[in-house]
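Researcher: I'd like a structural prediction for the single chain below. Treat it as a standalone chain; there are no partners to consider.
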Amino acid sequence: MTLTDLFDLSLRGRRDRVALEFAGVAYTFGELDLRSNRVAHWLRSADFQTGDRLCVYLVNCVEMIDLYLACVKLGIIFVPINILYRGREIGHILSDAEPRGVISDALLEGPVQVWTRSTMNEAAALMASDRPRASLNGDSPAGIIYTSGTTGVSKGAILTHSNFAINAINLLTLWQITQEERLLLALPLFHVHGLGNGVHCWLLSGCACDCWSASSTGKPLPSSSIFVRVCSSACRRCMSACWISPLSKRAQSAAS
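Model: Treating it as a single chain, here is the predicted structure.
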């Protein structure tokens, strides 16, 4: 079983339900599926093959979700880079991960091909929307997540489809997250909590998700039953997820 098999519970099974709201725009699960299919075809047209690495240096945006789903479908290894990183830190990851390319709106120097979001969007819009095929299983690598590097250089942790899937299934079971919930995801998607906990639980459960970016700061919090955020006491390089579970919220409501 792969992540795509699990995500299809929503991408195909709930395709007409509103999945995501970002920057005032709503997307259904079906729309996200088609968007990521086009991005997957574009990646193949750029000579990406199963097992290649793709580094992504972006703030939270719908394109980051498109890219992640496309990589999962093709077996391309998704390598998110902390947007707080600069020259030396980025250079280390690019050298260590050996990606075939990078998606970034920032100007990055180096021998690796870099595409911007606008370049990707223009090219992907011309691609077919059918789902490309790839031979994958639970042991196929899905991502390389780099550690914070607080005690040395960042180290890349290879996480397979099964690693991510088991974690998400356990969280859904523990928190009893259902499609009736509404998730407010305020964590950066480059971080393992935002990606491995927030995005995966959202896609498996089929709930609606409000995804925030840095530009959302200061705006009123939308109504939600689950809130995933960075703890306010954490420093800029030490991030942890703070979950408000649907069970605890219901218990608090009942008590009042």
